[in-house]
Amino acid sequence: MEKRRLGRSDLMVSPLCLGGNVFGWTADEATSFKVLDAYADAGLNFIDTADVYSTWVPGHKGGESEVIIGKWMKARGNRDKLVIATKVGSEMGPNQKGLSKSYIGSAVEASLQRLQTDYIDLYQSHRDDLDTPQQETLGAYEELIRDGKVRAIGASNFTAARLKEALDISAELGLPRYESLQPKYNLSDRAEYEAELEPLCRREEIGVIPYYGLASGFLTGKYRSDADFGKSVRGGRMAAYLDDRGRRILAALDAVAARKNATPAQIALAWLMARPGITAPIASATSVEQIRDLVQATKVLLDNDDIAQLDRASNPA
Protein backbone atom coordinates (compact mmCIF):
# COMPACT_ATOMS: atom_id res chain seq x y z
CA MET A 1 0.00 0.00 0.00
CA GLU A 2 1.26 3.47 -0.93
CA LYS A 3 2.33 5.62 2.03
CA ARG A 4 2.28 9.42 2.09
CA ARG A 5 4.27 11.75 4.33
CA LEU A 6 2.10 13.77 6.72
CA GLY A 7 3.20 17.39 6.37
CA ARG A 8 6.91 17.68 7.10
CA SER A 9 6.77 15.08 9.87
CA ASP A 10 8.27 11.60 9.92
CA LEU A 11 4.81 10.02 9.88
CA MET A 12 4.14 7.92 6.79
CA VAL A 13 0.44 7.13 6.41
CA SER A 14 -1.84 5.24 4.09
CA PRO A 15 -3.89 7.38 1.66
CA LEU A 16 -7.12 6.53 3.49
CA CYS A 17 -7.59 7.10 7.22
CA LEU A 18 -10.06 5.07 9.26
CA GLY A 19 -12.35 7.23 11.38
CA GLY A 20 -12.89 5.98 14.91
CA ASN A 21 -15.95 8.06 15.77
CA VAL A 22 -18.28 5.06 15.37
CA PHE A 23 -16.37 2.72 17.69
CA GLY A 24 -18.45 2.25 20.83
CA TRP A 25 -21.34 4.15 19.23
CA THR A 26 -22.88 2.56 16.14
CA ALA A 27 -20.28 -0.23 16.18
CA ASP A 28 -19.96 -2.25 19.37
CA GLU A 29 -16.62 -3.65 20.52
CA ALA A 30 -16.86 -6.93 18.63
CA THR A 31 -17.89 -5.21 15.40
CA SER A 32 -15.19 -2.57 15.86
CA PHE A 33 -12.54 -5.28 16.18
CA LYS A 34 -13.70 -6.84 12.90
CA VAL A 35 -13.64 -3.46 11.14
CA LEU A 36 -10.17 -2.67 12.49
CA ASP A 37 -8.90 -6.12 11.49
CA ALA A 38 -10.21 -5.74 7.94
CA TYR A 39 -8.64 -2.29 7.63
CA ALA A 40 -5.22 -3.39 8.91
CA ASP A 41 -5.29 -6.63 6.91
CA ALA A 42 -5.71 -4.54 3.75
CA GLY A 43 -2.34 -2.91 4.46
CA LEU A 44 -3.58 0.44 5.75
CA ASN A 45 -2.15 1.96 8.94
CA PHE A 46 -3.78 5.33 9.79
CA ILE A 47 -6.53 5.50 12.46
CA ASP A 48 -8.11 8.71 13.75
CA THR A 49 -10.08 9.12 16.95
CA ALA A 50 -10.65 11.67 19.74
CA ASP A 51 -11.03 11.67 23.50
CA VAL A 52 -14.55 13.10 23.15
CA TYR A 53 -15.85 10.11 21.13
CA SER A 54 -18.64 9.41 22.06
CA THR A 55 -19.95 11.78 24.74
CA TRP A 56 -23.11 12.44 22.71
CA VAL A 57 -24.42 8.93 23.40
CA PRO A 58 -26.61 8.69 26.52
CA GLY A 59 -24.64 7.07 29.31
CA HIS A 60 -21.25 7.65 27.67
CA LYS A 61 -18.58 9.84 29.24
CA GLY A 62 -16.08 10.00 26.36
CA GLY A 63 -13.07 7.87 25.60
CA GLU A 64 -15.12 4.90 24.42
CA SER A 65 -13.48 4.88 20.98
CA GLU A 66 -9.96 5.17 22.40
CA VAL A 67 -10.64 2.28 24.80
CA ILE A 68 -11.74 -0.01 21.98
CA ILE A 69 -8.75 0.90 19.80
CA GLY A 70 -6.44 0.35 22.78
CA LYS A 71 -7.92 -3.08 23.53
CA TRP A 72 -7.65 -4.05 19.86
CA MET A 73 -4.01 -2.97 19.55
CA LYS A 74 -3.07 -4.86 22.71
CA ALA A 75 -4.91 -7.99 21.55
CA ARG A 76 -3.26 -7.88 18.12
CA GLY A 77 0.19 -6.69 19.24
CA ASN A 78 0.37 -4.31 16.29
CA ARG A 79 0.95 -0.88 17.87
CA ASP A 80 4.27 -0.30 16.09
CA LYS A 81 2.67 -0.89 12.68
CA LEU A 82 0.05 1.84 13.12
CA VAL A 83 -0.19 5.61 13.04
CA ILE A 84 -2.66 6.57 15.77
CA ALA A 85 -4.16 10.05 15.77
CA THR A 86 -6.33 11.39 18.56
CA LYS A 87 -7.52 14.82 19.68
CA VAL A 88 -7.84 17.05 22.72
CA GLY A 89 -9.85 20.17 23.45
CA SER A 90 -13.52 19.32 22.98
CA GLU A 91 -15.66 19.34 26.10
CA MET A 92 -15.47 16.08 28.06
CA GLY A 93 -17.38 17.41 31.07
CA PRO A 94 -17.53 20.37 33.46
CA ASN A 95 -14.22 22.28 33.27
CA GLN A 96 -12.80 19.61 30.98
CA LYS A 97 -12.07 21.28 27.68
CA GLY A 98 -9.70 23.67 25.93
CA LEU A 99 -6.04 23.83 25.03
CA SER A 100 -4.40 25.16 28.18
CA LYS A 101 -1.11 23.59 29.24
CA SER A 102 -2.63 22.13 32.40
CA TYR A 103 -5.60 20.58 30.62
CA ILE A 104 -3.51 19.12 27.79
CA GLY A 105 -1.20 17.60 30.41
CA SER A 106 -4.02 15.72 32.11
CA ALA A 107 -5.91 14.88 28.90
CA VAL A 108 -2.93 13.28 27.19
CA GLU A 109 -2.34 10.96 30.14
CA ALA A 110 -5.98 9.85 30.02
CA SER A 111 -5.77 9.19 26.27
CA LEU A 112 -2.51 7.25 26.63
CA GLN A 113 -4.09 5.09 29.32
CA ARG A 114 -7.21 4.39 27.27
CA LEU A 115 -5.16 3.61 24.17
CA GLN A 116 -2.80 1.41 26.23
CA THR A 117 0.24 2.97 24.57
CA ASP A 118 3.28 5.02 25.55
CA TYR A 119 2.95 7.50 22.70
CA ILE A 120 0.47 9.14 20.34
CA ASP A 121 1.65 9.52 16.76
CA LEU A 122 -0.49 12.57 15.93
CA TYR A 123 -2.01 14.65 18.74
CA GLN A 124 -4.47 17.21 17.44
CA SER A 125 -6.11 20.34 18.78
CA HIS A 126 -9.72 19.31 18.19
CA ARG A 127 -11.01 22.86 17.96
CA ASP A 128 -9.55 26.29 18.50
CA ASP A 129 -9.43 27.72 22.04
CA LEU A 130 -9.62 31.50 21.91
CA ASP A 131 -9.17 31.74 25.69
CA THR A 132 -5.69 30.19 25.65
CA PRO A 133 -2.68 31.85 23.98
CA GLN A 134 -1.46 29.70 21.10
CA GLN A 135 2.08 29.99 22.45
CA GLU A 136 0.97 28.23 25.65
CA THR A 137 -0.65 25.41 23.69
CA LEU A 138 2.34 24.90 21.42
CA GLY A 139 4.66 25.02 24.43
CA ALA A 140 2.65 22.25 26.07
CA TYR A 141 2.96 20.15 22.93
CA GLU A 142 6.72 20.82 22.86
CA GLU A 143 7.07 19.20 26.28
CA LEU A 144 5.02 16.18 25.21
CA ILE A 145 7.17 15.70 22.11
CA ARG A 146 10.35 16.10 24.16
CA ASP A 147 9.10 13.50 26.64
CA GLY A 148 8.33 11.05 23.83
CA LYS A 149 4.59 11.01 24.50
CA VAL A 150 3.69 12.62 21.15
CA ARG A 151 5.43 12.39 17.77
CA ALA A 152 3.71 15.19 15.84
CA ILE A 153 0.85 17.64 16.31
CA GLY A 154 -2.07 18.71 14.17
CA ALA A 155 -5.00 21.11 14.16
CA SER A 156 -8.66 20.44 13.51
CA ASN A 157 -11.44 22.92 12.68
CA PHE A 158 -9.07 25.92 12.63
CA THR A 159 -9.64 28.97 10.45
CA ALA A 160 -6.90 29.94 8.01
CA ALA A 161 -6.09 33.04 10.07
CA ARG A 162 -5.65 31.12 13.31
CA LEU A 163 -3.67 28.33 11.65
CA LYS A 164 -1.32 30.89 10.09
CA GLU A 165 -0.93 32.60 13.45
CA ALA A 166 0.05 29.28 15.03
CA LEU A 167 2.55 28.55 12.26
CA ASP A 168 4.09 32.00 12.64
CA ILE A 169 4.47 31.50 16.41
CA SER A 170 6.10 28.11 15.87
CA ALA A 171 8.58 29.56 13.39
CA GLU A 172 9.38 32.61 15.51
CA LEU A 173 9.85 30.77 18.82
CA GLY A 174 11.18 27.46 17.57
CA LEU A 175 8.15 25.54 18.83
CA PRO A 176 6.64 22.45 17.17
CA ARG A 177 4.34 23.34 14.30
CA TYR A 178 1.03 21.86 13.29
CA GLU A 179 1.92 19.28 10.65
CA SER A 180 -1.66 18.53 9.69
CA LEU A 181 -5.08 20.09 9.39
CA GLN A 182 -8.34 18.20 9.76
CA PRO A 183 -11.06 20.24 8.04
CA LYS A 184 -14.55 19.36 6.93
CA TYR A 185 -14.06 18.73 3.22
CA ASN A 186 -15.62 16.52 0.59
CA LEU A 187 -17.14 16.68 -2.89
CA SER A 188 -20.22 18.42 -1.45
CA ASP A 189 -18.56 20.65 1.17
CA ARG A 190 -15.88 22.47 -0.82
CA ALA A 191 -16.15 26.23 -0.50
CA GLU A 192 -14.91 26.83 3.04
CA TYR A 193 -11.74 24.76 2.74
CA GLU A 194 -10.82 25.78 -0.79
CA ALA A 195 -11.16 29.54 -0.20
CA GLU A 196 -8.31 30.13 2.27
CA LEU A 197 -7.24 26.92 3.97
CA GLU A 198 -6.20 25.04 0.84
CA PRO A 199 -3.71 27.66 -0.42
CA LEU A 200 -2.26 28.07 3.08
CA CYS A 201 -1.81 24.33 3.60
CA ARG A 202 -0.24 23.81 0.19
CA ARG A 203 2.12 26.75 0.67
CA GLU A 204 3.20 25.60 4.14
CA GLU A 205 3.25 21.86 3.32
CA ILE A 206 0.59 21.04 5.89
CA GLY A 207 -0.84 17.54 5.53
CA VAL A 208 -4.62 17.63 5.10
CA ILE A 209 -6.77 14.80 6.49
CA PRO A 210 -10.37 15.87 5.83
CA TYR A 211 -13.22 14.47 7.87
CA TYR A 212 -16.75 13.79 6.55
CA GLY A 213 -15.08 12.47 3.40
CA LEU A 214 -18.43 10.98 2.38
CA ALA A 215 -20.57 13.88 3.64
CA SER A 216 -22.05 11.78 6.46
CA GLY A 217 -22.95 9.12 3.92
CA PHE A 218 -24.61 11.31 1.29
CA LEU A 219 -21.86 10.59 -1.26
CA THR A 220 -22.44 6.83 -0.99
CA GLY A 221 -25.57 7.43 -3.06
CA LYS A 222 -27.98 5.77 -0.65
CA TYR A 223 -29.88 8.99 0.09
CA ARG A 224 -31.65 10.00 -3.12
CA SER A 225 -35.06 11.08 -1.80
CA ASP A 226 -36.69 12.22 1.41
CA ALA A 227 -37.88 8.65 1.93
CA ASP A 228 -34.24 7.51 2.26
CA PHE A 229 -33.47 9.72 5.26
CA GLY A 230 -34.57 7.05 7.71
CA LYS A 231 -31.89 4.62 6.56
CA SER A 232 -29.42 5.56 9.31
CA VAL A 233 -28.88 7.75 12.37
CA ARG A 234 -27.21 10.30 10.07
CA GLY A 235 -30.15 10.47 7.68
CA GLY A 236 -31.48 13.61 9.27
CA ARG A 237 -28.49 15.52 7.93
CA MET A 238 -29.19 14.62 4.32
CA ALA A 239 -31.80 17.29 3.61
CA ALA A 240 -29.00 19.87 3.54
CA TYR A 241 -27.28 17.97 0.72
CA LEU A 242 -30.18 16.74 -1.40
CA ASP A 243 -30.83 19.85 -3.50
CA ASP A 244 -30.26 20.49 -7.22
CA ARG A 245 -26.49 20.64 -6.75
CA GLY A 246 -26.56 17.50 -4.65
CA ARG A 247 -28.43 15.64 -7.37
CA ARG A 248 -25.87 16.84 -9.95
CA ILE A 249 -23.09 15.49 -7.75
CA LEU A 250 -24.80 12.12 -7.41
CA ALA A 251 -25.33 11.94 -11.17
CA ALA A 252 -21.64 12.68 -11.79
CA LEU A 253 -20.61 10.08 -9.21
CA ASP A 254 -22.87 7.52 -10.88
CA ALA A 255 -21.41 8.27 -14.31
CA VAL A 256 -17.77 8.05 -13.22
CA ALA A 257 -18.50 4.99 -11.07
CA ALA A 258 -19.99 3.21 -14.07
CA ARG A 259 -16.90 3.95 -16.16
CA LYS A 260 -14.55 2.76 -13.43
CA ASN A 261 -16.62 -0.24 -12.33
CA ALA A 262 -16.66 1.29 -8.86
CA THR A 263 -19.17 2.58 -6.31
CA PRO A 264 -20.09 6.25 -5.75
CA ALA A 265 -18.37 6.13 -2.34
CA GLN A 266 -15.15 4.86 -3.90
CA ILE A 267 -15.24 7.64 -6.50
CA ALA A 268 -15.90 10.34 -3.89
CA LEU A 269 -12.91 9.19 -1.83
CA ALA A 270 -10.72 8.75 -4.92
CA TRP A 271 -11.51 12.36 -5.87
CA LEU A 272 -10.26 13.49 -2.45
CA MET A 273 -7.13 11.33 -2.64
CA ALA A 274 -6.33 12.79 -6.07
CA ARG A 275 -6.76 16.39 -4.89
CA PRO A 276 -3.39 18.20 -4.60
CA GLY A 277 -2.50 18.79 -0.97
CA ILE A 278 -4.75 16.09 0.47
CA THR A 279 -2.84 13.44 2.41
CA ALA A 280 -5.64 11.08 3.42
CA PRO A 281 -9.41 11.51 3.70
CA ILE A 282 -11.03 10.07 6.81
CA ALA A 283 -13.94 7.67 6.49
CA SER A 284 -15.59 5.47 9.06
CA ALA A 285 -17.22 2.05 8.72
CA THR A 286 -19.52 -0.10 10.82
CA SER A 287 -19.08 -3.37 8.93
CA VAL A 288 -16.40 -5.39 7.17
CA GLU A 289 -18.34 -4.95 3.92
CA GLN A 290 -18.10 -1.18 4.25
CA ILE A 291 -14.37 -1.42 4.92
CA ARG A 292 -13.84 -3.45 1.77
CA ASP A 293 -15.74 -0.82 -0.18
CA LEU A 294 -13.61 1.97 1.30
CA VAL A 295 -10.31 0.16 0.79
CA GLN A 296 -11.15 -0.38 -2.87
CA ALA A 297 -11.18 3.40 -3.26
CA THR A 298 -7.40 3.42 -2.83
CA LYS A 299 -7.16 1.38 -6.05
CA VAL A 300 -9.35 3.66 -8.19
CA LEU A 301 -7.37 5.90 -10.54
CA LEU A 302 -9.29 8.89 -11.84
CA ASP A 303 -8.17 10.50 -15.10
CA ASN A 304 -8.40 14.20 -15.92
CA ASP A 305 -11.80 13.83 -17.56
CA ASP A 306 -13.21 12.06 -14.49
CA ILE A 307 -11.94 14.77 -12.17
CA ALA A 308 -13.19 17.54 -14.45
CA GLN A 309 -16.68 16.04 -14.53
CA LEU A 310 -16.80 15.78 -10.74
CA ASP A 311 -15.39 19.30 -10.35
CA ARG A 312 -18.04 20.78 -12.64
CA ALA A 313 -20.92 19.03 -10.92
CA SER A 314 -19.75 20.03 -7.44
CA ASN A 315 -18.57 23.57 -8.21
CA PRO A 316 -19.46 25.57 -5.08
CA ALA A 317 -20.32 28.60 -7.20
**Helix share bin:** 40-55%
User: What is the number of beta strands?
Assistant: 10
The first-level CATH class name: Alpha Beta
CATH topology: TIM Barrel
Number of helices: 10
Number of separate domains: 1
**Oligomeric state of shown chains:** single chain
Overall mean confidence score, pLDDT: 95
Key structural traits:
single chain, 317 residues, alpha/beta, TIM Barrel, two-stranded antiparallel sheet, 10 helices, 10 strands, globular, AKR_Detox_Biosynth, Aldo/keto reductase, oxidoreductase, oxidoreductase activity, AKR
Compact summary:
With 317 residues, the chain is an alpha/beta fold.
Q: How would you sum up this structure, described in words?
A:
By secondary structure, this protein is of the alpha/beta class. It has a single domain (4-220, 265-301), classed as NADP-dependent oxidoreductase domain (TIM Barrel, Alpha-Beta Barrel), CATH 3.20.20. It has helices at 29-41, 64-76, 101-115, 134-146, 160-173, 191-204, 244-260, 264-274, 288-296, 304-313, and strands at residues 4-5, 12-13, 17-19, 46-48, 83-88, 120-125, 150-156, 178-182, 207-208, 282-283.
Topology at a glance:
Elements: E1 4-5, E2 12-13, E3 17-19, H1 29-41, E4 46-48, H2 64-76, E5 83-88, H3 101-115, E6 120-125, H4 134-146, E7 150-156, H5 160-173, E8 178-182, H6 191-204, E9 207-208, H7 244-260, H8 264-274, E10 282-283, H9 288-296, H10 304-313
Parallel strand pairs: 3-4, 3-10, 4-5, 5-6, 6-7, 7-8, 8-9
Antiparallel strand pairs: 1-2
Helix pairs in contact: 1-9, 2-3, 3-4, 7-8, 7-10
